[in-house]
Amino acid sequence: MDAHIETRIDILRQHLIDPEICIRCNTCEETCPIDAITHDGVNYVVNAQVCNGCMACVPPCPTGAIDNWRNVLRSEAYSVDDQFGWDALPAQNEEVNAPVEVPAQNDEAPVASDTVRGSTVAPWSAARPYVQLYTHKAPALATVVGNFRLTDAAASSDIRHIMLDFGALPFPVLEGQSIGILPPGTSTDGRAHHARQYSIASPRDGERPGYNNISLTVKRVQREDGKGVCSNYLCDLQKGDVVTVIGPFGNTFLMPNHPDSHLLMICTGTGSAPMRAMTEYRRRRRATGETGKLMLFFGARTRGELPYFGPLMSLPKDFIDTNLAFSRMPGEAKRYVQDVMRERANDVAQLLGDGNTHVYVCGLRGMEDGVMQALEFIARSHGLDWPTLWEQLRREGRLHLETY
Ligand SMILES: Cc1cc2nc3c(=O)[nH]c(=O)nc-3n(C[C@H](O)[C@H](O)[C@H](O)COP(=O)(O)OP(=O)(O)OC[C@H]3O[C@@H](n4cnc5c(N)ncnc54)[C@H](O)[C@@H]3O)c2cc1C
Predict the structure, then answer these.
(1) HSE-up of 320 (CA within 13 Å, CB side)?
(2) Do the Cβ atoms of 200 and 178 come closer than 8 Å?
(3) Which ligand 1 atom is the nearest neighbour of the CA of 232?
(4) How far apart are CA 200 and CA 217, in angstroms?
(5) How far apart are CA 359 and CA 152, in angstroms?
(6) Does 155 fall in a domain?
(7) Which atom, in ligand 1's list, is nearest to the CA of 364?
(8) Average confidence score pLDDT of the chain
(9) Helices marked H in 61-168 — which ranges?
(10) What letter does residue 140 receive in the DSSP assignment?
(11) Among 117, 155, 329, 393, which residue's beta carbon has the most beta carbons within 10 A?
């Protein structure tokens, strides 16, 4: 009896992140309510001294890399420094893996949903996504069939529409999903570059309907210390080049499929990619008589820096209610998406009060607070009980945030 108790105390079910699958998107670190997750330039790791197994980080992880566990002697738990040095997870030590009574909180504690702003479930009518068909060990190869600049030649940001064709290789995707790109080469420590994630900008039936291809919306990143590795690699690709792809990823940021569902889409810059995918899917199905509304708030610095400006403006007004916000137009006051949402508060509130409305927010991380505050302000000023509504939106898979 005593020996049994001792075993239970000494063995820890240690939470680990698989460095081979992790795409370093930072979602887990942001989600962890107790700062147990950290990273260096190479790996994301879990501090065994801090982690309480609450599982809040598990559902939002786009790859499942987060959901790894090893039974270890508590005194021999892998340190943060051990994990920083890993290329792959260590095998389970079978001597320690004798039947262990797992602490209840690891498996049974509910997800700490109040630490997650958006939904961790998909809309009820979303199609079932395929995820992780292609991995680091067995990636897919895609051929570049197009790469053109979306922003004005004079604009400071170079945002590109990049089309990838998978030929005969199955690569089924849904609007809202993303892929990982493995850029060639190694970083300064000699390790292969890690994958970067990009939202798919085309609908499920292909950038060109009926073709096995997808598109991405990629911004060329200039870091303080040089060029962003993957964005510059992608933006410089030529037609015919071959890229290495993993994924698809994402099983919650998905669109509803019931015909009377409304989409309230709020984005900035390359955050337009999933909105383009959803809008295009709905546009192609217009003839089927779907009655759901589409309302879009789209922000950029200037008109010339807004990706897809031309095609977006030519969409029928009775199909999509488009609202643009420009923050750096010469001679004009700065307007951000949250400002324009407030200007359209009556219509936003009407959508928020409708149980068929699904809200999507995508873009740079800095936009998230302002958008959430605007949603709260609009709800409260129109007599909606925001805490209740927010919880309902989250629980019903109707509030999706993807900022990076
Ligand atoms: C879920 C998800 C979806 C994403 N979708 C897209 C997408 O559709 N299109 C897209 O272009 N990017 C997208 N990204 C960002 C993308 O994964 C890369 O982080 C980005 O391209 C920079 O990678 P890099 O290798 O060029 O830069 P790195 O060599 O990795 O350097 C990163 C540096 O660039 C900065 N940085 C990262 N992104 C930006 C940015 N947009 N503007 C300015 N600085 C930035 C970082 O703060 C950091 O300092 C997404 C990220 C996530 C997590």
Answers:
(1) 24
(2) yes
(3) 26
(4) 8
(5) 29
(6) yes
(7) 41
(8) 91
(9) 80-84, 104-108
(10) E
(11) 393
Q: Of 261, 252, 257, 271, which Cα lies nearest the Cα of 351?
A: 261
Highest-pLDDT range among 183-197, 277-291, 339-353: 339-353
Q: Which domain holds residue 317?
A: 262-403
Place of tokens 């925001």: 386
pLDDT attached to residue 9: 58
**Residue 255 lies inside a defined structural domain of this protein:** no
Ligand 1 center–CA 368 separation, angstroms: 16
Q: Are residues 75 and 145 in the same domain?
A: no
We report the CATH number of the domain holding residue 61 as 3.30.70.20
d(CA 74, CA 53): 14
pTM of structure: 0.86
Q: Which residues pair with 222 in a beta bridge?
A: 227
Q: What is the CATH number of the domain that holds 286?
A: 3.40.50.80
In a shared domain, residues 311 and 384 = yes
Q: Ligand 1, residues 66, 177, 231, 403: which to mutate, most atoms within 8 A of Cβ? A: 231
Quick one: pLDDT band at residue 98, thresholds 50, 70, 90? low
Q: What is the pLDDT of residues 187-243, one digit of tens each?
A: 888 888 989 999 999 999 999 999 999 999 999 999 888 999 999 999 999 999 999
Cα 269 to ligand 1 centre (Å) = 12
Query: Going by CA atoms, what residue is nearest to atom 7 of ligand 1?
Result: 198
pLDDT digits (tens, 9 = 90+) for 255-273: 999 999 999 999 999 999 9
pLDDT at 356: 98
